[in-house]
Design goal:
Keywords (chain B): DNA-binding
CATH topology of chain B: 434 Repressor (Amino-terminal Domain)
Number of helices of chain B: 5
GO molecular function (chain B): DNA binding
InterPro entries (chain B): Cro/C1-type_HTH (IPR001387), Lambda_DNA-bd_dom_sf (IPR010982)
Order of helices and strands of chain B: EHHHHHE
Number of domains of chain A: 2
Oligomer: heterodimer
CATH superfamily of chain B: lambda repressor-like DNA-binding domains
Protein name (chain B): Transcriptional regulator
Strand content of chain A: under 5%
Helix content of chain A: over 70%
Shape of chain B: globular
Distance between the termini of chain B: 9 Å
Number of domains of chain B: 1
Largest sheet of chain B: 2 strands, antiparallel
Helix content of chain B: 55-70%
Largest sheet of chain A: none
Pfam families (chain B): HTH_3
Radius of gyration of chain A: 19 Å
Distance between the termini of chain A: 20 Å
Strand content of chain B: 5-15%
Number of helices of chain A: 4
Amino acid sequence: METMKLERTKRIRKLAVWTWTWVVTMAIATFGPEFIWDNHSFLTPFAIIVNLANGILMILANRDLFNHFDELERKIHLESMGITLGLTVVVGLTFSLLDQKDLIPFDAEIGFLVMFTGLCYLAAVLINTHRFK
Amino acid sequence: MKNKIRDLREQKGMTQEELAEFIGVSRQTINAIEKQKFDPSLPTAFKMAKLFGLPIESIFQFEEK
């Protein structure tokens, strides 16, 4: 069990590192062109490519952690992902429609959907974990 | 699905943690199986049957819902 816990901790740390570096590279790619390198023709696409590569490594680290889950944890996370995917598509399209028809006083930015997806997944994992306690 | 995991584990004098370690799952999974909130996979059921020295059908009883 100790070996399992150590392996789990190692994979969680790896995911945390890739997630934080992805957030940092996203911030650099977003604000860098305006505040750091004055829209340099090479640095802007380079920063975006670095962020994309970092995101792919983050996804691989997440898959690595998922593959270490046991059968109950996999069930909890798979159900949570299913609920999150469904809600993101349905709520995202409703949100976009509301924006197109000018029924909300602001633009339907992708950032809102990303936040909604994250919160939805967190809530689904907590609820599903509680169900099996 | 009904099961006798808790009784068999206690007869063997094992904790949930020890059983989880032997089977290769988390303690929460053993707890959920004992409380019949989660049905284990076939490999897990076979590992339990091997540990307790009993056939699978005498540990797990299928119930029509």
